[in-house]
């Protein structure tokens, strides 16, 4: 059985988006500064990839204040979790197809 590459989600083709979703699926939520530090990326780079995942409906953005400081948290939506799992399952199937029997 051959798995078509079209089953891979284009939203996760970028390494950073894959990393972001990995963090958000493994954790209930994560804030912007912690994500930036963990992934060692610039504000602008992280923000653009978060915006792309938000447009897909894969993450939710929650803005609040801690004292007087703004705090932005992100969490994976059910749609995002399902899409991410399907993407990983497809990758696993592709890898298993390459095993020499």
The largest β sheet comes out as: 3 strands, antiparallel
Mean pLDDT: 92
Q: Classify the helix fraction into a percent range.
A: 40-55%
SSE ordering = HEHHEEH
Cα separation of the termini: 14 Å
Any overview of this molecule?
- This protein is elongated.
- Helices cover 52% and strands 18% of the residues.
- The chain has four helices and three strands; from the N terminus they run H-E-H-H-E-E-H.
- A hairpin with a 2-residue loop joins strand 2 (59-66) and strand 3.
- It has a three-stranded antiparallel β-sheet with strand order 1-3-2.
- The model has no long low-confidence stretch (mean pLDDT 92).
- It has helices at residues 15-26, 32-39, 43-55, 78-97, and strands spanning 30-31, 59-66, 69-76.
- The protein is an alpha+beta fold.
Briefly characterize the structure.
With 101 residues, this protein is of the alpha+beta class.
Walk me through the topology:
Elements (H helix, E strand, L loop, with lengths): L14 H12 L3 E2 H8 L3 H13 L3 E8 L2 E8 L1 H20 L4
Antiparallel strand pairs: 1-3, 2-3
Key words describing this protein structure:
101 residues, 3-stranded antiparallel beta sheet, alpha+beta, single chain
